[in-house]
Amino acid sequence: MAGTVATLALASSLLAACGGDGDKPELVWYINPDSGGQAAIAEDCSTDEYTITTQVLPQDASQQRIQLARRLAAKDPEIDLMSLDPPFTAEFADAGFLAPVPQETLQQLEDQGTFQGALDAATWNDELVVFPFWSNTQVLWYRKSFVEKAGIDMSQPVTWEQIIKAASDNGGKIGVQANKYEGYVVWINALIESAGGQILEDASAGVDAKITIQDEPGEVAAKIIEDLASSSAAPSDLSVSNEGTAGSTFGSDQGSFLVNWTYIFHNYDDTAPDVAKDIGYARYPQAVEGEESRPPYGGIGIGVSEYSDQKDLALEAAACLVEPEQQGKNAEMTGNMPASTAGYDYPALADIYPEDLLQLFQESVNAAAPRTVTPYWSDVSSSIQATWHPPATVDSDTPPSSETFIEEILKGRKLL
């Protein structure tokens, strides 16, 4: 009897997932935890043929990866669509978890002006494997009152060295992300890329990729982190700082500079209107004076599961979800910017953001440096966190020691 009940329950759940009793199919989209944008466009893109529903993934990106990877490895057919963080795209594609993106979608993405950085982050082995949805980037936020006091001309590019000195000399604190998590690696990667380097080269070689974190750009990155951590501009919570705590530092009486994502512009509207009026913005700081910065790249690509029972419908739905109007609507609701120039034409965005800030966002996305696209990124990132944290311990020995450790992890000679 127990076995019969279990069998009936399983059959019932499968029928429900497929839209049983003659109902139209239900496509389940596993989304990252944002404020309503994805649910709204799921409703917009539902049709007479199918309904798109959403399930929210965990807050932490690594936990998102674990939940999806475990279910896809088991060939779970109840995942149709998924919001994927760029660092995990290659891993999922290499494992065969993602359905190929149709050729006609490539033309759609080109026609709507998808940013090159978004395409790069969505590509593995020269093939587009997810649908670029939103493309976030970081800029340098500053308190206008502080830079006036410090006498800095923010109409010109500034370096990390300059802002660290200005904050130190004028009682300011700089907000960064330096906790032992992915956000810290985002900062390290941006510093290395801004200095003209990469963490890995020839990533398609997998565990045999060339590790280059100890090259001169890695030394530049380590020096910047060391200089900030040892200065009076370092906030007291530097070693546990994340996007939220860095934003709190910026909003305090000691707020001076902050590197953070696009949502910050309206972060203080209701809670600290005086701070909101005091916010200025500029291109991400240069790591090397005279060399253009490579800001961090973040975003979401929409993947279609290879194991979905409704794969063709899910591919059709994904193409709708990344249309410019949907990208724009999501940006309006969440502050996560579109992955295409056409998405920026969504009228509401011009009412929410100044024109020059929207231009800065697009310029920064175009110049942004995605983290290395490799199926082993999770191991690489964890290795960097293990050797570069806490920031107060970073010095000239950090890049070579981290390079050795990354190689040992990738070759299986050590465990994380």
Automatic annotation (TrEMBL):
Q: Which of UniProt's keywords are assigned here? A: Signal, Sugar transport, Transport
Q: Name one GO biological process term.
A: maltodextrin transmembrane transport
Name the source's superkingdom: Bacteria
User: Which Gene Ontology terms of cellular component type are present?
Assistant: ATP-binding cassette (ABC) transporter complex, substrate-binding subunit-containing
The family database entries (InterPro entries) matched by this protein are listed as: SBP
Which GO-annotated molecular functions does the record name? maltose binding
What the entry lists under Pfam families is as follows: SBP_bac_1 (PF01547)
- Family the UniProt entry places it in: Belongs to the bacterial solute-binding protein 1 family.
Q: Which PANTHER family match?
A: MALTOSE-BINDING PERIPLASMIC PROTEIN (PTHR30061), MALTOSE_MALTODEXTRIN-BINDING PERIPLASMIC PROTEIN (PTHR30061:SF50)
Q: What is this protein called?
A: Multiple sugar transport system substrate-binding protein
